[in-house]
Amino acid sequence: MVYYELKTDKLQKFWEIQHFPEPENYFLLRYGKVGTPGNMKRVLYTQKSFPDRYTTREIKRKIDEGYKLVSTQSDAGELKRMYEGYQVGLKQKLKAKTQKKSLEKVCPPGKVLNPKTKRCNKIKEVPVKVVKKKESPTESNKDVVYYVKKQGVMLAHTFKNATTGKVTNPPKGTSIAPLGWYLSEKFDGYRAVWDGKNFRSRVGNVFNAPDEFKNWMPKGIALDGELFAGRENFEKCGIFRKKEPCWAEWKKMGIVYKVFDIPSHSGTFEERMKVLTELVDKLCMKNKKECPLELTHQVVVKSEEQLTKTFTELLSKGAEGVMLRAPNSPYEPKRSRYLLKVKQFFDAECKIVGYTPGTGKYEGKLGAFICELDNGKKFQMSGMTDAVRTNYMTTHPVGTMVTYTYMGLTGDGVPRHPGYLRKRDTRE
Prior knowledge:
By secondary structure, the chain is of the alpha+beta class. The protein has helices spanning 50-65, 76-102, 148-151, 211-214, 247-253, 269-283, 304-316, 386-395; strands at 2-7, 12-20, 26-33, 39-44, 68-71, 111-113, 120-122, 155-158, 182-186, 190-194, 199-200, 206-207, 223-228, 256-261, 293-295, 299-300, 321-325, 335-343, 346-357, 366-372, 378-381, 401-406, 419-423.
């Protein structure tokens, strides 16, 4: 179980989720105002892969809304009893509602009750004329030129394996990175594909952008890029998930769309960049200062020293890392070896203070370590091997110091993307 709370000047809400695996195969959700029993919901499932996907999605959604983790401990039996009581209460309400309806006046067949006069009047038969509508594109499909869910998005491999240090092997006929590859900044924002009508995430969810922002985008052509709020401003990117976007807010924060590819173009990367350069220049011709559409700068890597230097300079300015794109490469709508990411990882130590249970394929094993920093802040860490997940109580008891990797700190001061590395050597 995980228990989260959202506390602001106006809101005091909670949300918790508990997984009941085989043979039950369901989740219990409890949510509402802090200090009240709240509402409850049961989510059934049949697919073995569902628990991991569902839990990850729902927790991410709550974190994006501002919820904070409070506890990972719970009495599953007590939560079950609460749900049973909740169901009893619902049945009583339904029974009372049904009894109330039964007391109302019932009209004989062929008559209907007039709510104003409370009399039973004859039903007037009015002939219904059936009109067949001409088939036309639905509003959801209108102007859409690229379907992200069906057609996919190009994703990157890691430039070097963290364990072996080896560079990802390129496809046949392509030079080994980084020499001759195109280098650009890796933006720490929200990956977004312009489908001709809306901005969509790599899984197809819509980012509700203001019309004043979307009006700068092209019609009849898809773009691939990043909705970007600036370096070291990832925490502000929650603005992209608002149901009702505010143009003044977007403009004040300096939101831009860093475009770096054309998904539907069948040419090489160089050909796509030529088309993209001309397109951005044309769209921003009227007012370059106000135009939120920005072309991602690409540089050909001539040496490994150049890559290291550029990478270090961008990191010092607050960038997340760099991207490498293979020359003469196509746009592959999948995780492609034509596209590589170079990121900076830091390492540090923390103390294990608890555990979260595993779900799905990790059922009965460790889900994540709950770790504590020297300043008292806690966070969850994953990335362990199956051996560690199985024997964690013996090998990693509470109080064990472990080394982990992370990519900088969030605005709350906790590690971003923490990953287990190893147990600290007691001889150190």
